[in-house]
Amino acid sequence: MKITIEKRANKEGDKQSIRLVYWYGSHTDENGKTKHDRKREQLDQYLYANPKTKTEKQHNKETLQLVESIKAKRLTEAATGRHGFTDTTRINASFYSFFSQLMATKKTNESSANYSNWEACLIHLKRHHPDDGLTFEQITVDWVEGVRRYFDTQAKTKSGNLISKNTASSYFNKVRAAINDAYAKGIIANNPLNQVKGIKSDSSPRVYLTIEEVRSLVKTDCRYDVLKNAFLFSCLTGLRWSDINKLDWSEVSQFDGVHRITFNQKKTGNLQYLDIPPQAYSLLGQPGKGRIFQSLKYSAYMNTELLRWTMAAGISKHVTFHAGRHTFAVSLLSNGVDIYTVSRLLGHSEVKTTQIYADIIDSVRKHAMHKIPDIGL
Question: Which domains does the chain have, with CATH numbers?
Answer without folding.
Answer: 2-85 (no CATH), 95-195 (1.10.150), 211-369 (1.10.443.10)
